[in-house]
Specification:
There is one protein chain. The chain has 565 residues and is of the alpha/beta class. It folds into three domains: 144 residues, 2-Layer Sandwich (Nucleotidyltransferase, domain 5); 146 residues, Nucleotidyltransferase, domain 5; 199 residues, DHBP synthase. The chain is 37% helix and 18% strand. It is built from 19 helices and 20 strands. The termini are far apart.
Length: 565
Amino acid sequence: MNVLGISCHYHDAAACLVSDGAPVVAVQEERFNRKKNSSEFPIQAINHCVQDGGITFADIDAICFYEKPFLKFSRVIIDHLQAWPFSLNNFLQTMPHWLQDRLTLPLTLDKELGFKGKVFFIQHHLSHAAGSFLVSPFEEAAILTGDAVGEWATMTYGRGRGRDIKILKEIRYPNSLGLVYTAVTTYLGFAAHEGEGTVMALASCGKPRYLDKLREIVHVKADGSHILDGRFFGFNKGDRMYTPRFLKMFGEERKPGAKIDERHCDLAASLQKFTEETLLTITRHLQHETGLDKLCLGGGLFLNCVANSKILEQGPFKEIFIQPAAGDSGGALGAAVYTYNCLHNNPRSYVMRHAYLGTSYSDARIERILLNHNMVFKKFDDEGLSKFVAKKIAENKIIGWFQGRMEFGPRALGNRSILGNACNPGMKELLNAKVKHREPFRPYAPVVLEERAAEFFELSGSSPFMLLAPMVKSDKRPIIPGVVHVDGTARVQTVSQASNEKLWRLIKDFEGITGVPIIINTSFNLRGEPVVGSPEDAIACFKKSDMDFLVLGNLVLDKCDNCQA
């Protein structure tokens, strides 16, 4: 049975093909159209899923969408009416989108794909819940989902057993921890749906001096449910998500690109602390209600790796699972597995152990592309490549690393990555100056051999999807200064030989040179751009940056040989 899952129209549009219960292809539209966090109908992602899955549209048994558009539309209309007349501009801007495409998915599928078969609509947070629990290794677990807003729900508490998912409670719009985080993100001068990770990093530079004020405007109950004081937030009343009363309490907003001062750092720290406190309250209540010791997390709120670590370290659950595309792109996966397992009563047979579900390119195809671009390159076998690149990283060279199948989700997990030397205390500044051009306080992530992770990090178990930020052990911080954040944490990715042998071998060879089984891994993109999806994207990024080497499969380009290319 072939099920195609789709998410789109808001941000992080994606498609996922599930065949006989297993996701075989999953990819975001942004990797094709090069529009970061693209919301467009994912026609290129869909076409890739079908082609790479080796099927035709006639072979698709069902298409499923990651939310219920009419239920969401009812919330939008009610919200506009309640905020009238302040919502007029938003109403005029959004209604054409609703009437043109958001309410007519079956017609779009017929027009764009010629598909006239079954179409299912799965509630947004149920898609998040399914996308975490049904691909987890747990037979039974508590489930917590959270984001800005789906149809009405902003957070749900639930439990899963086998292929059965029950939502026990939901928190509804406008009461949303995710919207609070995004509102403060925009107040601090960063973009919604993109700058939240930057605020998480900024939080480590400040002190939570505004925590009591956040508690005043967001009231948290004993079970973790929360009520926002509407006098401080205006989600549909104009161009800002916060009101003049919010500005009176916290001061003038920061303009994008303006200097970041202590006040901004302290508010970020307060927001992060408040989020962690609230999530810990919720998880303690959820564990008490369910009596379970395993937890699945879904929704964009749980891309916050610092909060995830607090839940694991300080919360009542012994194990947690978060799938790598926890945000809206993962809704395509969640809708597809829910349709297969729950709506069609098929048993679960898949556990998500890696995220390598996207595009791939053979060395022969890459070579043709390089020749067409007049690029100078050298060929290596697997062993020679690993030793060469490990040596260059040890020499503090910056490597563009393009291998195998692209990762699904926002994190680069070693196949569309930029790699560097974690032992170099100046590597963060070097990467910022030569490649990423981003805020200097933002840390870079380590990728570590799974079997050695516990020696360097306060981490029990693995972290294959870079969704945890444990403490770096104090005696190891001087050894890997390039990946230690100002608060002593690191957003860790563990890699096993089974999950990514090429990356594992590279780190192993780097360890042979330096004695350290860790390198820096950051996403292969420039600031403001999506992660590279194709060799052409990688070449363009390589040309525009000061990376030293570009590795495409087993083909290596030296910047010195291609400076005029």
